[in-house]
Structures are given as C-alpha cells and as structure tokens.
Amino acid sequence: MRGRRTTTTIRAKDKIRANDLLNRNFSTDAPNKVWVTDFTYVPIRGGFAYVSFVIDLFSRRILSWASSTSHDTAFVEEALQLALWQRRSERKPHVSPVFGTIHHSDAGSEYTSQRYTQTLAMEGLVPSIGTIGDSLLTG
C-alpha cells in the first residue's frame, strides 16, 4: 500500500456546475442554512474504502455518512438521503426545514452529475459548488 494513491475528485467533463455561493465563507448563523458534503478514502487491505459525509455548518455536526468500495453518484447520494431523513425525523421546532438549504460541495463529477443535481432540485436544496477538492476539509 505504501506509495499508492487514489484520486477522489474527478472534474466533470462538461464543466457545467452551480455557482460557488459560499466563496470559502464556511460559517452560518442557524441550523439547516448551509450543508457541506465531501468524501475521503481510507486505505484498506486490497484497496480503498470511501466515506462520504454531510455536515451542517452551524453546529459542525456530521448529519450522515455512507461508505463504499467505489466512489460514484449513488454513493454520495446515499449520504445526502440519510441527512435529509435525519433532519426530517428530528422535528425540532427551532430547526428550520431543509427547503432552501445551501448544499455545498467540491466540483467532483459525483456532485455535478445530472442525477445528483436533479435530486438536489427535487429536495429543494440550493446547489453550491466550489473548486476541485475545495469543499470544507481544505478550508
């Protein structure tokens, strides 16, 4: 495994993506205003395991995570769906609904795919995409 590397962020070929609504300002004044999503990899025997997560910027709480041996749209979408379920199941009066929440990611092809973009629209989330490898962890 020594010296072996993997690439997690692969730029979408068409280069069409949402605007960067955060401009590296990773702070907010209330829950469910801004979510940041990203994924990373962990070397394991025989390859890599990938872990995707969604964070609410207000509390810096990890709302959800998913793991997989491959990184594709279905993998990152699983973490998003779990975050949506988590927030809807809490039903706390002081937490605003997720409709209109800014969903920020890097410019990886998983997050710029048509399928993922449609999911964001159907759920009422506002897409925001930074540069490659520039979600929250490098902030």
Describe the structure in your own words.
The protein is an alpha/beta fold and 139 residues long. The protein has a domain at 34-129: Ribonuclease H-like superfamily/Ribonuclease H (Nucleotidyltransferase, domain 5, 2-Layer Sandwich). The chain has helices spanning 73-90, 109-112, 114-123, and strands at 34-44, 47-56, 61-68, 102-105, 126-129. It has a five-stranded mixed sheet with strand order 3-2-1-4-5. Helix 1 (73-90) packs parallel to helix 3 (114-123). The longest helix is centred in the middle third of the chain and has 18 residues, at 73-90.
Brief overview, please?
By secondary structure, the protein is of the alpha/beta class. The chain has a domain at 34-129: Nucleotidyltransferase, domain 5, CATH 3.30.420.10. Helix content is 23%, strand content 27%.
- CATH architecture descriptor of the domain at 34-129: 2-Layer Sandwich
Q: Which percent bin holds the helix content?
A: 10-25%
Question: Could you give a short account of the major beta sheet?
Answer: 5 strands, mixed
CATH-derived topology of the domain at 34-129: Nucleotidyltransferase, domain 5
Which keywords apply here?
about 140 residues, 3 helices, Nucleotidyltransferase, domain 5, alpha/beta, about 25% helix
Secondary-structure map with pairings?
Blueprint (H helix, E strand, L loop, with lengths): L33 E11 L2 E10 L4 E8 L4 H18 L11 E4 L3 H4 L1 H10 L2 E4 L10
Parallel strand pairs: 1-4, 4-5
Antiparallel strand pairs: 1-2, 2-3
Helix pairs in contact: 1-3
